[in-house]
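HUMAN:
Sorry, I am quite new to this. Are you able to go through these amino acid letters and fold codes? The numbers rather puzzle me.
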Amino acid sequence: MTIQETPAPVLASAYQRSVADYWNREKNPVNLRLGEVDGIYHHHYGIGDADWSVLEGPEETRDERITAELHRLECAQADLLLSHLGPITPDDHLLDSGSGRGGSSLVANQRFGCHVDGISISETQVAFANEQAEKHGVSGKVRFHLKNMLDTGFETDRFRAIWNNESTMYVDLSQLFPEYARMLRHGGRYVTITGCYNDSYGLPSRAVSEINAHYICDIHPRSSYFKEMAKNRLVPAAVVDLTEATIPYWELRAQSPLATGIEKAFLTAYKDGSFQYLLIAADRV
């Protein structure tokens, strides 16, 4: 099937150019080493109880055990997100918005047999992800594009489901959700897993500000998601607070050779209540 696309500017601001440059240059071992475990490269965090026995045993294989466990936890996060997409058939088209190195798109295709388009403003990520689709033998159904999620150029009503996995903090939600409402079929499903700051805490805490600076992003307040969804015919069907479920991932990562130094800020923000990790699933009505 040929995709009819309308040309759209990929980088529309200096900020977007800075984000693209960051991800074009990014070669963080915590993203690459975990993907090397099984060839599925995710760009997100993990959930679930950690197997702390990986810290025990032979010292020469300790790093390998920790890396495999971190990857298991991030795969559990992706599986949870995909389980909220609703009924998906092999003929359906899905959009992985902010697709990183493509891991979630590949898992969605493996799970549903469906068509998946992934988009990123990073040329490096798009090229890497398309190489992975080729390696996995699914390039006929899973394709990655250099596109801006605020103005994708995809046709109206194209997608049965759209998701963001930890990427909404790079965009203005008041611009994002109108585009999703346009592309989603009536009755389609939108799912996001995201970190957001707790409105009841007040303004972003120091730890949240550290996270913003580290990833050159702008974490939104929790209320903004629901306000902007309501304006754009996206009605929440499920809201899951994953804050407690993600803490074991960060505690284990802090003891990993792949730690980046931002682990303390995440743990502080989650534990003091200023930061929350949410899954939101919403239907297009």
Q: What stands out?
A: The first strand starts at residue 93 and ends at 97. Residues 85 and 189 are 6 Å apart (CA to CA). The chain has a mean pLDDT of 96. DSSP finds ten helices and seven strands in the chain.
